[in-house]
Amino acid sequence: MSVAPSSTVVLDHRFARELPEMAIPWQGAAAPDPRLLVLDEQLAAELGLDPDWLRSPDGLGLLLGTEVPEGAEPVAQAYAGHQFGGFSPRLGDGRALLLGELLDADGRVRDLHLKGSGRTPFARGGDGLAAVGPMLREFVVSRGVHALGIPTTRALAVVATGREVHRETALPGAVLARVAASHLRVGSFQYARATGDLDLLRRLADHAISRHHPGAATAANPYLGLFEAVVAAQASLVARWMLVGFVHGVLNTDNTTISGETIDYGPCAFLDAFDPSTVYSSIDHGGRYAYGNQPAVVQWNLARLAEALLPLLDEDQERAVALAQQALGAFGARYDAAYSGGMRAKLGLSHRPGDLDDAVLTSLVGDLLDLLTRARPDHTSSFRALAAAARGDRAPVRALVPDAELDGWLERWLALDPDPVAMDRVNPVYVPRNHLVEEALTAATAGDLGPVRRLLEAVDAPYDERAGFERYAVPAPEEFGPYRTFCGT
């Protein structure tokens, strides 16, 4: 795949051009001693960017937002959001910049965006900076989520700035460069609606249709078509999170994308002990964003999108509300279908789509989740252990789920002839396990990137069990818990 030298990097500024009311021109803060920590070379190649050039002083300037190609217009984006249920009409990129849009090797438009690039007019009381640890967390976990086949923003690089960031202690600073289908979110529409400018709201919706859901343009009601497409994308996304035990941690409306990509890897984590009430985020005191609450929270966020879109759905308020409610009502069925299909695959039963009654599958899955909730085994290990049971070795799953009812459940499941080879294709061996992520970030903050690189090597091929990676496939030690994550601001 060919890659572009620095002279041919082209960044468009379509968002800023079409929606100037939601974009403030800005530039990244100078870094006293920039140093590249990690670079996703495969992603760079997909974007047509030369990895060697990105390592050069000019390339680092792009990754920091201090030197951009001629014609580029970096901006801080405006958006609003419900944060833990409370509405803030003006949030925006307080420490981030949209450098611009570029075409990848497949002709798709992608955002190039920065985090930790300095204060902007949206920064409020923050310093606009980021520390090495949280930026590497997003690099590692988003890479793992991408390898699992889940739609996500992706991290291109993390650059150490040589500047200290003051939190509880002084920490080394860094900037993350990330790539997304776009950074349009539910909060973008909330912001436009809050301005009272119907033309702005309409232009934003047209921009989103063109960028993400072009099929809506030919619908009888394009804006209803847009909403229906976002509902479908988000239902599929949250089902995929639930299937692999991913806990987002801060599912505010400004972190719910129009594209259906996972965004913002602040207090995220993967389930250790299976428990629907699991909360890892240190700021989620009421458990609003617990693992088991994620589908309901996403549906709630989509209701806020519907509210923002009401003036576009129909001139008559009552008809607009009815249309929105009907479209939002499809979320549950779409989520259930995606989750049930995923569980069918995880249990090795996808080869029996026609002769396995839905009620049988629902009962089987429900009873399994009850067993897991009582026993609280490691989520990832449990499904690989079930594959071993499908091959005739029940010892691993019995060790994880020492419940008297397990054997009865196994008999019911094994009678359906599960395919263990198919199970191994969808149940990962390696995910960014919390204790390994923390170990790697602690080492990196102290200057040793070796554990980060080794962890990336493991999660890049999550389904392929490999010699030498045994420690990446085992649950956290007992002394690791209870685990808490932080949003990294």
Give a written overview of the molecule:
The chain has helices at 14-18, 41-46, 51-54, 57-64, 132-147, 186-195, 198-211, 222-244, 294-313, 317-346, 358-375, 379-390, 395-400, 406-414, 420-426, 434-445, 450-459, and strands at residues 23-25, 35-39, 75-77, 81-83, 86-88, 96-103, 109-115, 154-166, 170-180, 246-247, 269-270. It is of the alpha+beta class. The protein has two domains: 6-183, no CATH class; 184-427, no CATH class. The strands form four sheets. The protein has a five-stranded antiparallel beta sheet with strand order 2-8-9-7-6, with helices on both faces. Mean pLDDT is 95; it is low at 1-7.
Q: How many structural domains in the coordinates? A: 2
Q: Provide the helix percentage.
A: 40-55%
Low-confidence stretches: 1-7
How many β strands by DSSP?
11
* SSE ordering: HEEHHHEEEEEHEEHHHEEHHHHHHHHH
* Main sheet: strand order: 2-8-9-7-6
How does the overall form come out from the CA principal axes?
globular
The proportion of residues in beta strands is 5-15%
Helix/sheet category: alpha+beta
Taking Cα atoms only, what radius of gyration do you get, to the nearest Å?
Answer: 23 Å
Name the average pLDDT.
Answer: 95
Biggest sheet features: 5 strands, antiparallel
Number of helices: 17
C-alpha termini separation: 37 Å
Short description:
With 489 residues, this protein is an alpha+beta fold. It has helices at 14-18, 41-46, 51-54, 57-64, 132-147, 186-195, 198-211, 222-244, 294-313, 317-346, 358-375, 379-390, 395-400, 406-414, 420-426, 434-445, 450-459; strands at residues 23-25, 35-39, 75-77, 81-83, 86-88, 96-103, 109-115, 154-166, 170-180, 246-247, 269-270.
